[in-house]
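**User:** I keep going back and forth on a fold encoding question. It is easy to fool oneself when nobody else works the same problem. Could you pick a protein and write out its sequence and tokenised fold? Could you put it straight underneath, so I can go through it closely?

**Assistant:**
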Amino acid sequence: MPLKDLPSDCQPREKLLAKGAGALSDAELLAIVLRTGMAGKSVLQWAAELLAPRQSDALGSVGSVGSFGSINGLLQASSAELSQVKGLGPAKRAELIAVLELARRAMAQQLQQRSLLDRASTVKAYVQLHLAHKQHEVFAVLFLDSQHQLIALEELFRGTLGQASVYPREVVVRALHHHSAAVILAHNHPSGQVTPSQADKQLTQSLQAALSLVDVRVLDHIIVGPGAALSMAEEGEM
């Protein structure tokens, strides 16, 4: 059932315009993006199902049961995961992916205009948007200017991370390329467990030593997973 066929007091679009986006639930906001439901299912019902707590079938497939646990889980889903959900055709998948990319860009603009030292929660959210949904480990670096504002985020290494696979020389080269005064290191744990491992701590120390030789400070190392984020600086690990 499309939004226009819902009773007037149940139409999320009209509610948003009358009361503001903050008055809508996650499902109502998602329904506006989806616009139409499925056979025998209103768009609001479908949106609620997509955001329902995750379940796994015998094969462990999320797409087969069509739930992502939260709006965060849905927006961090890969295109491949979205393509497994019945009813999410190319147009709807493109719209959801576009929403996520707009969120990334809006947050990047915030970080380019403010000191990241004052925005730890925003930094963690920004790194989550970029890395938390990835199925393999990715090591990234946020390059900062002398005011600790964001210059760029670059994904530098992929695969099992550690001192053997993350090369300090490459990080130093990219920091010099951007004329960075400081950096924030970041990587994801696809398992969802964000507690830093001993390898994470050793890698951080190695990069701190290498970057200090060119007067670039390492401000933090952010570890993210689906629905979780940790700052090593906040945890006293740096």
About this structure: Residues 3-88 form one domain. Strands lie at 138-144, 150-158, 182-188, 217-225, 228-231.
